[in-house]
Amino acid sequence: MKKPALGKKPGEFPPYLFRDLDKKRQIAVNQGKDVISLAVGDPDIPTPAAIARFAAKEVLKPANHSYPQGRGTLRLRQTIAGWHKKRHGITLNPETEILTLIGSKEGLAHLPFALIDRGDTVIMPDPCYPAYKTGVLLSEANIKRLPLSAAKGFLPDLSALPRSFFKGAKLLFLNYPNNPTGAVADLKFYAGAVAAAKRHGFWIAQDAAYSEIFFGRPSASILQVPGAKDVAVEFYSLSKTYCMTGWRLAWMIGNPEVVGALTKLKENLDSGQFNAIQETAVFCLKNHDALVAPICKVFRARADFFIGALKKAGWTVFQPGATFFVWAKPPARVKSLDCVYRVLDEASVLITPGSGFGPLGEGYVRFSLTAPEKRIRQAADRISRMEW
Ligand SMILES: Cc1ncc(COP(=O)(O)O)c(C=O)c1O
Fold first, then answer.
1. Residue of 80, 117, 211, 320 with fewest CB within 10 Å of its CB?
2. Contact 207 CB / ligand 1 (< 6 Å)
3. Same domain, 35 and 120
4. Is residue 239 within 6 Å of ligand 1 at its C-beta?
5. pTM for the complete prediction?
6. Where are the beta strands (DSSP E) in the chain?
7. What are the tens digits of pLDDT across the range 18-59?
8. What residue spans of 89-235 are helical by DSSP H?
9. Host domain of residue 316
């Protein structure tokens, strides 16, 4: 038999971080350990019942059973525009400046195909959400890492970077509120980023997947910066906001050329999301405040408690302004993976190594507070008893 070969590209991808961690978890469970997983950013809180009930009715409607409108129904795009107007005071044209997505991961990974050519440079933060790399690697583009540091609140100082840093750059990924650090950005930061993009000639893709899980002031949109639409697009998602990670719906807003380019690509690639889910997204956005406030309150209480416990146990913790993540260093200088294995072995708690988010994540670990409060308290108690 002449054996066909696999493509070379998939071989370039690192193994999906959580697959390996889950294997380790399974081994510990098989050994009879009571493992508490604080690894994956997938809320334990079920989707609010009002959303599920609404969706169930939509699923039964034959009108929703055909191919959906790929870029999103007009009703959903209009609702998204209305929501952003109320939430951020920005005006979006539903015809040209909004594209719905099958989750923001898919959109973020496909975006480079619409913008990037072989040999271009894409800048992404270090540390960052790993999925930004996917489309960049498949586009055969170069990755340049933008260092984030605790000393600067994990906000890069773009104006301090030399012109040479941006040579060949065509796209910059930003992500605030930030995974893995929980850092938040204000309008002054976004204004600096927009100015840098205009000075050096690159697009900005700002990932706002955690926009609604905030603990203080509501998080800003990069599109609130005057003129940002010239260079920026921003990604929003139902996933974390309404505890709907399994449902798969997100959207991109901003520059009409970029929205047009990704729309065209996706029209050739997929057929959009099930209309029943698009209708459900309309329901979510129209009932946003009532649905989200209780979810935010739960995550905030968990963060306050857990951070207090870690600090008491000698950990160095970055105070998150948003998200359900806690980014921390153990009391002793230990590599991320060694720390993860020790915490699993000695406390039966599964966490994520900071090094999985980029070289500058080394030494850190990420806790995802996506387990019931009782389990988070148990985890904090067990970790506090560890000796370093
Ligand atoms: C920073 C960030 N962006 C995007 C996503 C993807 O979210 P979804 O595809 O569910 O919209 C995630 C998921 O963990 C994330 O952490």
1. 117
2. yes
3. no
4. yes
5. 0.96
6. 36-37, 98-101, 121-126, 142-147, 169-175, 203-207, 232-237, 250-254, 316-318, 325-329, 349-350, 352-353, 365-368
7. 777 788 888 989 999 999 999 999 999 999 999 999 999 999
8. 104-115, 132-138, 187-200
9. 9-47+290-384
